[in-house]
Amino acid sequence: MTAAWQEQASLKALNTFGIDVAARYLVRASSDDGIRQALAAAAQRDLPVLVLGGGSNLLLTRDVDALVLQIASRGRRVLGDVDQRVVVEAEAGEPWHPFVLWSIAQGLCGLENLSLIPGTVGAAPMQNIGAYGVEIKDVFAGLSALDRQTGEVREFSLEECAFAYRDSVFKASPGRWLILRVRFALSRTLDPHLDYGPVRQRLLERGIQQPTAQAISDAICSIRREKLPDPAVLGNAGSFFKNPVVSAECAERLRVAYPGLVAYPQGPAEVKLAAGWLIEQAGWKGYREGDAGVHQQQALVLVNHGHATGAQLHALARKIQADIRARFGVELEMEPNLY
Ligand code: FAD
Ligand code: NAP
C-alpha cells in the first residue's frame, strides 16, 4: 500500500533543533518498496527529495520545498560468524541507541562507546559517527544503498565508503545514495577503549576496573547526560563544528600564544584542536542572541532556547567562525547538514 503524503507538514518535531519549518510534502517509508515508490512518485512530479532520519544532524534554515522522505524501516538481526566476528545488520530506520543496546544484549561488543548518539542506523555512515575514541568504521562490515541516479542497489565495502573523520563517500555526494541497511562486525570478547575523556575515571568511581560492554555503555550514557543538552528539553544538533585538524607548526604557534591549548596529535605532521576550547576561549560559551545560543556547559553545541529560526542559528554560527578565524587563524567547519 502506498503511504499517504502530508502536505505543508510541520517538521518541528522531526528535527532535534526543534526548528519550526514546513515541508511541502512529507511521507514515511518503512520498507524498500515504500522508499522506491516515494522516490518514483517524486520523480514523476519533478519534486526534489530530502531524506530524513532522526533529524539530529540537520539545520533547517527555510521551508523545505521538496518531498521529505522519512526513513522508518525497522529490523535488526544476527547474520552469523565471520573470521572470529559476528556480523549483525539493521535497517536504516532503526534508532541508533536502541540498536547499540540490542547488540550488547546479544553478548556482542564494539558499539558500546557509541551509546546514546541520537539518530538512525541509516544516517550513521553519512558522517562515520564517532565518540569516545571509536568510529563506526572500526566495526563496519558493509552496507546496501540505493543509487538514486540509477535505481540500483549497491553493496559498499569498508574501503568503498571512504570513511574519514566525520566524513564518507556518501557525505561527499549529497542526495545520491540512500542507505537501506548497514552491517557491523562485532566481537564476543571486549576490547575496551577507555582512554578518551573521563570514561575510565567514571568506571573507577563506580568501582569497576574490568568493565563489561554494558558497564562502558552505562558510564558513557551518564557522562553524556551530564554534559550534553537533551534535545527533548533544549533543541540542538550535538557538536555544531568539527574539530579542526591543523599542521603541527600551526598548533605550536598557537600553543606559544595559548599555553592551555587543547590539542591531540594526529601522526607527526597534524594536530586536532578541540573546537569547543577555541570557542570557549573566545568568550562564546553561554552566549545568547534571542533564542539562538551557545550551550552553557559545552561551547561546541549551539542551542535553540525556544523559537530560534534556522537562519538565526546559522548567522550565529557564521559569527563564531569569523571570530575564531580572526583570533586564532583557524577555520571551523560546520558539522550538521544545512538545508
Ligand atoms: P538526520 O539528521 O536525519 O540526517 C543527517 C543527514 O543524513 C542528512 O543529510 C540526511 O539527508 C542524510 N540521511 C539520513 N538518513 C539517510 C539514509 N538512510 N540514507 C542516506 N542519507 C540519509 N554525532 C556523532 O558522530 N557523534 C556523537 O557523539 C554525536 N552526538 C550527538 C549528540 C546530540 C545530543 C545530538 C543532537 C547529535 C549528536 N550527533 C553525534 C549527531 C547525529 O546524532 C548523528 O550524526 C546521527 O548519525 C544523525 O542521524 P539522523 O538519523 O538524525 O540523521
Ligand atoms: P570532550 O571529552 O570534552 O573532548 C573534547 C574534544 O577533545 C573532543 O571533541 C574529542 O575529539 C577530543 N578528545 C578528547 N579526548 C581525546 C583523546 N584522548 N584523543 C583524541 N582526542 C580527544 O568531548 P565531548 O564534547 O564531551 O564529547 C565526547 C565525545 O562524544 C567526543 O568523541 C565527541 O566527538 C562525541 N560527541 C560528538 C557529538 C557530535 O555531534 N558530533 C556530540 C557530542 C559528543 P573528537 O570529537 O574528535 O572525538
UniProtKB/TrEMBL annotation:
Its main location: cytoplasm. Pathway: Cell wall biogenesis; peptidoglycan biosynthesis. Its EC number is 1.3.1.98. GO terms for biological process: cell division; cell wall organization; peptidoglycan biosynthetic process; regulation of cell shape. Its cofactor is FAD. GO terms for molecular function: FAD binding; UDP-N-acetylmuramate dehydrogenase activity. SUPFAM superfamilies: FAD-binding/transporter-associated domain-like, Uridine diphospho-N-Acetylenolpyruvylglucosamine reductase, MurB, C-terminal domain. It is an enzyme of class 1 (oxidoreductase). It catalyses: UDP-N-acetyl-alpha-D-muramate + NADP(+) = UDP-N-acetyl-3-O-(1-carboxyvinyl)-alpha-D-glucosamine + NADPH + H(+). The active site is at 166, 239 (proton donor), 335. It is found in: Cytoplasm. Cell wall formation. Belongs to the MurB family. This is UDP-N-acetylenolpyruvoylglucosamine reductase. It comes from Pseudomonas cremoricolorata.
